[in-house]
Amino acid sequence: MNFKPLGNNILAKRIKPRRLRSGPIILADADNARVNPKSQMAVVVAVGPGKHTTDGVRLEVGVNPGEQVMTKFYAGTDITLDGEEFVILKPEEIVAAVEV
Q1: What gap in Å lies between CA 13 and CA 7, rounded to an integer?
Q2: Domain 10-98: CATH class, spelled out
Q3: Distance CA 5, CA 78 (A)
Q4: Measured between alpha carbons, how far is 11 from 90 in angstroms, rounded to an integer?
Q5: Which regions of 15-93 does DSSP assign to beta strands (E)?
Q6: pLDDT per residue as tens digits for the range 20-37
Q7: pLDDT score recorded for residue 78
Q8: Where exactly are the structural domains of the chain?
Q9: pLDDT digits (tens, 9 = 90+) for 51-98
Q10: For labeling, which of 7, 19, 69, 82 is most exposed (least CB within 10 Å)?
């Protein structure tokens, strides 16, 4: 299925929380998963063209397909396409672009 977000919507695929260890210490998303079962990390799959201002100027979305992003807790709308789970986000629900 070909899915193209409209306006300033972003289609992303959540990354499952990883359990990181540094010796006997568990780091990062392991504790987060107990509070919020959804991961805050996602990979951008598709980006809409952006939204128009009242002056007719198009404002681009700040991310590109393939980028890894961090979202707010409980951000987005979960959807299923061809058996795979995705999330539709707004730019204001993304708090950071993460370089891996």
Answers
A1: 19
A2: mainly beta
A3: 14
A4: 9
A5: 20-22, 25-27, 41-47, 51-52, 58-59, 68-71, 77-81, 84-89
A6: 555 665 555 545 555 556
A7: 93
A8: 10-98
A9: 999 998 999 898 999 999 999 988 999 999 999 999 999 999 999 998
A10: 82
